[in-house]
From TrEMBL:
<dbReference type="Pfam" id="PF00326">
    <property type="entry name" value="Peptidase_S9"/>
</dbReference>
<keyword id="KW-0378">Hydrolase</keyword>
<feature type="domain" description="Peptidase S9 prolyl oligopeptidase catalytic">
    <location>
        <begin position="94"/>
        <end position="251"/>
    </location>
</feature>
<protein>
    <submittedName>
        <fullName>Acyl-CoA thioester hydrolase/BAAT C-terminal domain-containing protein</fullName>
    </submittedName>
</protein>
<dbReference type="InterPro" id="IPR029058">
    <property type="entry name" value="AB_hydrolase_fold"/>
</dbReference>
<dbReference type="InterPro" id="IPR001375">
    <property type="entry name" value="Peptidase_S9_cat"/>
</dbReference>
<dbReference type="GO" id="GO:0016787">
    <property type="term" value="F:hydrolase activity"/>
</dbReference>
Amino acid sequence: MPLNIVQRLLPGWGITYGPSGDGPFPAIMLLHGSEGAWAGWSHRDAMLFAAHGFLAFPYGYSSGGNAWSAGHIIDYPLDRSVEALKALREFQFADERVGLYGISRGAEHALLLASLMARDKLEGAPDAIAVHSPPDVVCGAFDALSFRDAGDPGWQAWDASKRAWTWCDSHDGLLPTTLIEIERYPGPLLLSHGTQDRMWSVEMTKRLEQRLCEHGRSPEVHYYEGEDHIPSSSGQNQHYELLLDFFSKHL
């Protein structure tokens, strides 16, 4: 029986998932959250996109870790994601339009990448971006070894003493609590968030929406009533229907 979804190696970067055939296919780069590259959730999402005609590349950017531990997001060079996007655009199976999808810390990653590329007028910016549970400010570093659940003694969402991101070998403009200037990005943007998110407050997406609208942008925004940071089965179904519709329109 022939496979409907096939894996293809993006040389030097990792595995992609897409439909069988020669393509080219509209492409999406996926950015995982603090669960890290080893957890596999972004690969699951990539296969869902592939089942609907997209070439999906789950990009693992966290450092360290293994199948039992998430690793960390500390001093990740966002410039490297520019190169990953470029490699995906040049991949023989990718169409000319490339989207970006991030969840949680991956949503922060996506918004920062888009805003910095727009600020510095770099070519190759994503043609459409979707983010779920995004923060509206830069967050500190994440290290799975020191993570505690909310309510535990010493709990914190991130380590404010360390930096998560760099750009051109610098932390300038990337210190925790700095506003993410996503209003610089001119392309289509989808924001979504569960209203009962206990990890990242829904108020962050509401502030992003307000700021974008104040700058003349018209993001597509969805609030999932009663959903937590990770949506329920019905919430996931609703979310993916909206995601697929968004990327089908813009890629």
